């Protein structure tokens, strides 16, 4: 039995961010603009990747526990106030139990946050807001091949099945259409050079919906998806997937002559891998269809017809400094009839009944200083 270990307590990250968010980003029913919410998501994803990279593999039977604290300082001008200052304190505690050489794994992580605004800078007037403690991750994972091996048996052929249940990040492809935490159940089966995943889940209640014009304060949506990956190539991992999303948000009050409903379907394909030993790439294309309501629409729905595309090249230089250079292109389709927000229903799509604005549930790191949604957007980035 591995000894319990407590780590990451002294890890403190301070990020000072200068950002600009246009005044038009503010929604009638919500105070926080979309840019601000995206900035928080960008920082959370950066911390998640750093932490996951430090989580080593457990032994035959191991119990690990620990926690970490980080402080982020955001300084930005949103076009309404001359400047806003936010200090975000996050305390996370986690524990993990692994049994039978990793055949069974339990993982739990909680988060307690304090949002400390300067006087007069808060969007909702609450200058010291405590969030949590919230269950950020809580999963059980079972590897069938390892479980049978621990019992002295084995699966026939090159087949394996991994079952996951609980609250965790769910990502298909490179994350262009789907990359959010879900309460879900997934089955991943591998046979020879193929990997097939099936997933059913729903959004976590603490997430904000992308449509900030509606009166539902939290996101309630259900997802059903499947993904197929080919593992038979040495340097490439092509994939294809399909995701269905259904809107189950509940409005706190009805807006006259306005309904809110956004149901969507995504079909994606792409690949990740290496062009050469040091030149890595990611590419993904997504087509979206479905239905939505436009501005002051309550009888007839819009037909959604949208798409998105992303390509990235990254070169890793030799040497101990591990320097890298990257170039990226991202496109999300937009709709010329949307005068204000590319994602809101109210003050959104006017005139016709066709909605070409791409709205996904994925995540692409568009940056802290700009942090837009990748809808109605061409973006080039080099670093």
Q: Name the overall outline.
A: globular
State the helicity in percent bands: under 10%
> Beta-strand percentage?
over 45%
Which structural class matches the secondary elements?
mainly beta
Q: Using only CA atoms, what is the Rg?
A: 22 Å
The H-and-E topology, N to C, reads as EHEEEEHEEEEEEEEEEE
Question: What is the β-strand count?
Answer: 16
Distance between the termini: 44 Å
Give the rounded overall mean pLDDT: 81
Low-confidence parts, pLDDT < 50 over ≥5 residues?
1-30
Tally of DSSP helical segments: 2
| Major pleated sheet | 16 strands, mixed
Compact summary:
By secondary structure, this protein is mainly beta.
Overview of the molecule:
This protein is mostly beta strands and about 375 residues long. Helices cover about 5% and strands about 50% of the residues. The protein has a 16-stranded mixed sheet that branches. Strand 9 and strand 10 (about 235-245) form a beta hairpin. The longest helix has 21 residues, at about 35-55. The chain is globular and about 65 Å long.
Write the layout of secondary structure elements.
Layout: E1 16-20, H1 34-54, E2 62-77, E3 84-99, E4 104-117, E5 128-143, H2 144-150, E6 159-171, E7 179-191, E8 194-203, E9 221-230, E10 236-247, E11 262-274, E12 279-292, E13 302-316, E14 324-332, E15 354-355, E16 377-382
Parallel strand pairs: 1-2, 13-15
Antiparallel strand pairs: 2-3, 3-4, 4-5, 5-6, 6-7, 7-8, 8-9, 9-10, 10-11, 11-12, 12-13, 13-14, 14-16
